[in-house]
Amino acid sequence: MEFTALVERASSQYEAGLLTEAEASYRKVTQLRPDYYEPWLKLGNIYVRTGQLEAAVRMFTKCTELRPDEVRGWSNLSLTRLKQSLAVLDEAQHHFPNDSAGAAVLRNSRQSLIKHLVR
Questions:
Q1: Contact at 8 Å (CB) between 47 and 53?
Q2: In the CATH scheme, what is the code of domain 3-117?
Q3: What are the backbone angles phi and psi of residue 52, rounded to the nearest 5°?
Q4: Cα(63)–Cα(42) distance, rounded to whole angstroms?
Q5: Quick check: helix, strand or coil at residue 94?
Q6: Residue 82 and residue 57 in contact, taking contact as beta carbons nearer than 8 Å
Q7: Which residues of 86-103 are buried (b: 16+ CB within 10 A; e: fewer)?
Q8: pLDDT at 117 exceeding the cut of 90
Q9: How many beta carbons lie within 10 A of that of residue 14, not counting itself?
Q10: Average pLDDT, the chain
Q11: Torsion over CA: 23, 25, 27, 30 (sign)
Q12: Is the pLDDT of residue 2 over 80?
């Protein structure tokens, strides 16, 4: 398949919400043109949407390496890291009774993180 047609197919799949198919297509695009920014960004977005945050971090990090002057990669990387931080705090809550000192520390950490985000 021609490169341009492959990119268009990946984009159409992505826009239609066919994330598994779009992932496979964007992977092919990155194999053909590893220096092409957009598919790495889309792969990162796919991984965030499917809860694969570590994979998303790798994709957005690749974006920042390819184009350090492009804000989308940095912004998405930052937001993904924040999602990871909140997920860690949420997971930790399951290991402490609600009325324990540990649960209070975790709640305060979560509130502090959110407070810093909205400043």
A1: yes
A2: 1.25.40.10
A3: -95, 75
A4: 10
A5: coil
A6: no
A7: eeebeeeeeeeeeeeeeb
A8: no
A9: 21
A10: 96
A11: negative
A12: yes
First and final C-alpha spacing in the chain: 49
pLDDT tens digits, 37-78: 999 999 999 999 999 999 999 999 999 999 999 999 999 999
Q: How far is CA 119 from the centre of its chain?
A: 23
- C-alpha angle 88/51/22, rounded to 5°? 160
- Percent of the chain past pLDDT 90, that is, above it, reads 93
Q: For the chain, give every domain's residue range.
A: 3-117
Structural tokens at position 68: 């350090």
3 is written with which tokens? 């490169």
Taking the C-alpha atoms of residue 31 and residue 22, their distance in angstroms, rounded to an integer, is: 14
Burial label for 110, CB within 10 Å (0-12, 13-18, 19+), is middle
